Amino acid sequence: VVRTASRPLAAGDISTFQSFIFLGGQLSLALCVLLCLNYYSIVLGAASLSLVITYPLMKRITYWPQLVLGLTFNWGALLGWSAIKGSCEWSVCLPLYFAGVMWTLVYDTIYAHQDKRDDIIIGVKSTALQFKEDTKQWLSGFSLAMLLTVPAIGAHLAHQIYTLDIDKPEDCWKKFASNRTVGVLLFIGIVLGNL
């Protein structure tokens, strides 16, 4: 798409082979980190591989690739706990995981609205295309679900959705990038909760 045409692989700055070498290096380093963890965490980390492998294909299969991204990206909520404790306390980990998945649906749907015209042309799917003009209602529902576990960030998400212009890619980018604030607030909440 136009917005990503200058990325190294799309621009031809690196070859497909070089990108596979880079990917292999990253996966090797990740495996080294994983193997330093306890057995439970190694199994839990390996269990995420099916999500990691299938996520890139989801835009061709479903209008919900953002959900698969959320399930994949937030696996760290489970793995981080098990790496420290040796197992998951599901009553703690699952709400955090669920909140992360809901948050990913919010910010990545906003992100997807930047590319919706190109996505239609090239035939890939996204929640942006699925929700269309109902995006704000869907994002409100996901945000409400997320807020059941992390109420401190509600004001930011409400403002983000209320002021979102889904037809202006630059505004979608601005709102997407503003989710750093959500992450900072969530981090502060975790730190203060532990204090």
TrEMBL record:
It is a multi-pass membrane protein. The keyword Transmembrane helix applies. This is 4-hydroxybenzoate polyprenyltransferase, mitochondrial. Belongs to the UbiA prenyltransferase family. It comes from Cathartes aura (Turkey vulture). The chain crosses the membrane at residues 27-55, 67-84, 90-107, 138-157, 177-194. The keyword Transmembrane applies. It comes from the Eukaryota. It holds the Pfam family UbiA. One of its GO terms (biological process) is ubiquinone biosynthetic process. Its cofactor is Mg(2+). Keywords: Membrane, Transferase, Transmembrane, Transmembrane helix. It is found in: Membrane. InterPro entries: Prenyltransferase (IPR039653), UbiA_prenyltransferase (IPR000537), UbiA_sf (IPR044878). GO terms for cellular component: mitochondrial inner membrane. One of its GO terms (molecular function) is prenyltransferase activity.
